[in-house]
Structures are given as C-alpha cells and as structure tokens.
C-alpha cells in the first residue's frame, strides 16, 4: 500500500513558492471576470500569465488520469450548476453568473493548487450565501488540521456546516495530497466521522476543496468526459487551499496579497504569510 508522503524542508520551500504563484494567478484574473467575457478568454489570460510572467506550467493542460481523456485547457472554469472541471470555451459570462476558477501551477517540479469563487456583476442572494457557506466550510476544515487530528475530523466539520445551512456535500470528488505529484495520497473527504481515517503528521501537504450544492448532492458527468454538473441543476460552489501540517497546527500555502481574508473565527496566528 502507498502511504502519505512527509515533505522535507526543501519540499516545503518549493511548495510555498508554488502555492503563492497559484494564488497570484487568481489575484490577476479577478478584474477580468465581467459580463461579456468568455471562459476561454479567462483561461487564455491565465495561461499567458503563468507562462510569460511567472514561468510556471499549468498542471491541468494534458493532465490525463486513468480513465480520462487529456484535459484540454490550462484552468478549470465551473459556472453555476457546474460542480468542477468545467472546460473553458466560448461560453459568454452574464450578469448574475457565479463561477469557480481553479488554478494549479507547477514551479520547479512542485504543485500549487487553489480555487476561488467569482461573481459576474451582481450575484443572487442564494449564490452569495452558497459561496459564503462554502468558504466557511473550507476554513472550518482547515482549522481542524494539527498533528494527531484525523482526516475524518475535517470531513465531519465540513459536512455539519454545509448541512446545517440546508446544503449538500459532493461525495465523488475530494481534496488530495499534493507535492511533486498533482494528486497523491491521502484522499481528503469533505464528509465523514470524527476520529476516523488517517492521523495527521507534520510535513503532510494536502488540499481542502469542498464542493457544496444548494440542492441535492448527486452529480452527473457531461459528454466531454470532464465537466461535472449537479443532477438537479442546482448551484454549486467550491473553494480550495493547499495546506501544510505543522508542529502546532497548519500553514496555508496558497496565500497571496489579493486572497480574501479568512472568516473571523480563524486564529490569525495560524494563518501564516509566505516568505517571498
Ligand atoms: N485542480 C483540480 C483539483 O483541485 C483538478 C483539476 S484536474 C483537471 O484537484 F485536469 F481538470 F484540471
Ligand atoms: Co485540488
Ligand atoms: Co484545484
């Protein structure tokens, strides 16, 4: 059986750099998210920024897990009822749309993976609340991270918060270990029971990336082999950070100047900033 890798100090330095760069792509693209722009144009801008400004490689491009066809673009743009893995294309964004942009860069062999929600013009009250609750879900999960905690503690806390709000947690996709490999052990479920699954150890790095639906949790896959939508066509939201388990708790690696602040319930001393 494969096990969860423990990163070296050198790995951690590389992951801090990759994480910050991934977050900075999201900082860069935010102002371009406006009515009339296409998801393909947003992808093109991100791709150029990664390649020409950062010197990073977009990890999704040609990514091909077993059973999949190669992913054709540099980013994922998941609009409205798209849960994840939306392929950028000629879809024109209009006022009231909400979308997740998911960025994974490779720098010096290390992966940084982060996503945020964006509103096109003015969001509906539902879309705004769903995005806020999902953001809290991500941070509630992150806040559980410390040596000795179990992955089930994160999943349970996330699921409780989502369901208390009347929303549901997507089960088919999860967070993941990450490093020199895009997706590695462990699987980080966004539902579960406290005290179950792997015990956390300093030096583990994984993502927390809950997908929360306004309606039922069931999903369906589109014919393109990638795009996942809610089965009931309800809105779906997602936020993602890459996080290191430290001796005392956690360090979020996908930080940048433009990232939204953590919710008020987060202890700022654990929300480390990154050495440049
Ligand atoms: N970035 C996604 C994640 O958070 C994975 C996207 S795979 C892709 O794990 F090929 F669709 F890009
Ligand atoms: Co991820
Ligand atoms: Co991602």
Automatic annotation (TrEMBL):
Residues the entry annotates as binding a divalent metal cation 1: 102, 113, 240
Q: Which Pfam families match?
A: Peptidase_M24 (PF00557)
| Keywords for this protein | Aminopeptidase, Hydrolase, Metal-binding, Protease
EC class, as a word, reads: hydrolase
Stated EC number for the protein is 3.4.11.18
Write down any Gene Ontology CC term: cytosol
Q: Which cofactor does it need?
A: Co(2+); Zn(2+); Mn(2+); Fe(2+)
Q: Which reaction does it catalyse?
A: Release of N-terminal amino acids, preferentially methionine, from peptides and arylamides
Designated name of the protein? Methionine aminopeptidase
Organism for this UniProt entry: Noviherbaspirillum galbum
Gene name of the encoded protein: map
């Amino acid at each position: 059986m494969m096990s969860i890798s423990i990163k070296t100090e050198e790995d951690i330095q590389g992951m801090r750099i990759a994480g910050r760069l991934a977050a900075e792509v999201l900082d860069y693209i935010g102002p371009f998210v406006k009515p009339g722009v296409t998801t393909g144009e947003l992808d093109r801008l991100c791709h150029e920024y990664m390649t020409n400004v950062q010197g990073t490689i977009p990890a999704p491009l040609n990514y091909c897990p077993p059973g999949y066809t190669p992913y054709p673009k540099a980013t994922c743009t998941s609009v409205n009822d798209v849960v994840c893995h939306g392929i950028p294309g000629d879809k024109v964004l209009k006022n009231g749309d909400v979308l997740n942009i998911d960025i994974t860069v490779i720098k010096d062999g290390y992966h940084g993976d982060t996503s945020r929600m964006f509103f096109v013009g003015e969001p509906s009250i539902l879309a705004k609340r769903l995005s806020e609750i999902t953001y809290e879900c991500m941070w509630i999960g992150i806040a559980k991270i410390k040596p000795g905690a179990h992955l089930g503690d994160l999943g349970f806390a996330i699921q409780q918060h989502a369901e208390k709000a009347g929303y549901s947690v997507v089960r088919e996709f999860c967070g993941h270990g990450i490093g020199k490999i895009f997706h590695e052990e462990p699987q980080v479920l966004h539902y579960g029971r406290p005290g179950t699954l792997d015990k956390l150890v300093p030096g583990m790095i994984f993502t927390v990336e809950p997908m929360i639906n306004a309606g039922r949790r069931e999903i369906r896959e589109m014919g393109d082999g990638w795009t996942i939508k809610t089965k009931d066509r309800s809105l779906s939201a997602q936020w993602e950070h890459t996080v290191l388990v430290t001796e005392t708790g956690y360090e979020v690696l996908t930080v940048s100047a433009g990232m939204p602040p953590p919710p008020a319930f987060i202890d700022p001393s654990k929300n480390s900033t990154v050495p440049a």
